[in-house]
Amino acid sequence: MVLVYRYRVKSLNGLLNQQAGKVNFVWNYCNDRQKDALRFCRPWLTGFDLNKLTAGSSKELELHSGTINAVCEQFARSRAQHHRPYLRYRGCKSLGWVPLKGRDLHRAGDAFRFAGNTFRVFYSRALPEGKIKDGTCFAQDSRGNWFLNIVIELAELPARPLVHGVGIDLGLKDLAVLSNEERIAAPGFYRKAEMALAAAQRAHKKRRIRAIHARTARQRMDMLHNRSAELARAFDHIAVGNINASGLAQTSLAKSVLDAGWSTFRKMLAYKALRHGARYVEVDERFTTQTCSNCGALPDSRPKGIAGLGIREWTCSDCDQVHDRDVNAAINILRRGRATLEAGIPILSEVMGRTSNEGSIPTVRCRHWQ
Ligand SMILES: [Zn+2]
User: Fold this and answer.
1) What is the pLDDT of residues 261-293, one digit of tens each?
2) Own/partner pairs for 255-258, CB < 8 Å, 24+ apart?
């Protein structure tokens, strides 16, 4: 299992600022060579080719050779990933970024050694034993603070037997309603900060605006991390509805949807479940609100259509069970999740791998074959 640990860097921020400029130089060089390739109809340069072209520049640039290699390889990867012939130039407005090879970063107590320098960090949590991998980088946030992101490979835990499960219905009023009738309130951090943000925006206080945005994001992440970790520890399997967050984010509900952080919450649940030996599954949400979780029927009294949106509580006309709308949905989600797991598509990494691949491949195939 590969995880990223993030530490705020305490020392040598000036050095990192300098190096970020040189990284941009290398990046822009790669982009120039790519444009040359386009202009003269030459084959596109791979990360390997770019590495060869930049070989030997380490001393002159005063940049670690591993960093130069990582920049070249990332350039080629980004180009492929975004399906672009060339990419944007990096300039003084880009957030600082200094990538490095995992093998070049060494632990030194609560600090880290890289390229002959010791970077002290706020060691907020211990870095577990494991191999530090490529993809590790120093990165700057919008406020100019530097962070060290360490990509580390950890041993996977064996999956726990499926005993206690939980179904999660994501919503806007409550962030999540669990099948055991617990509710996780939607904190609405952005809504709370809106007044202060508006005042700062009217006064054109850029630093203040950035600080408010950063605080909102930090509060939201903290809450999501805590809640998802609790769930992953407490339950053996977790089922979540596949509600389409990015689709809803384009509607008038956008602010609330993004503020709730559904997608982030699901991603956190997925990797934290793996980490604690639990299983995570996303299930089809359709009709989970309308189906009675007691008798499994679609009764006439169910909340349906636009008119049903406001109904919080309803009684099944088939079995007379009184349902809380969201808890009923969560129970249905739990049941579907359990059925999926028992049917033998249980492994999260497989599920995740497949969905991430499906996003890109079929569109290309359809175009070619039809
Ligand atoms: Zn019923």
Assistant:
1) 788 889 899 989 988 889 899 888 888 888 888
2) 255/190, 255/191, 256/172, 256/186, 256/188, 257/172, 258/190
Taking 50 as the pLDDT cut, the residues of the chain under it are 346, 349, 351, 353-370
How many A from CA of 177 to the centre of ligand 1? 20
CA of 229 relative to ligand 1 center, distance in Å? 33
301 CA to centre of ligand 1 in angstroms: 10
Domain 165-353 fold is Nucleotidyltransferase; domain 5 (3.30.420)
Q: Could you tell me the residue ranges of all domains in the chain?
A: 2-153, 165-353
- In the chain, DSSP assigns E strands to 2-8, 97-99, 106-108, 111-114, 117-120, 131-132, 137-140, 146-153, 165-170, 174-178, 183-185, 237-241, 279-283, 313-315, 322-324
pLDDT of residue 307: 66
Residue-wise pLDDT for 68-87, tens only, equals 999 999 999 999 999 999 99
How many angstroms separate the alpha carbon of residue 339 from the centre of ligand 1?
20
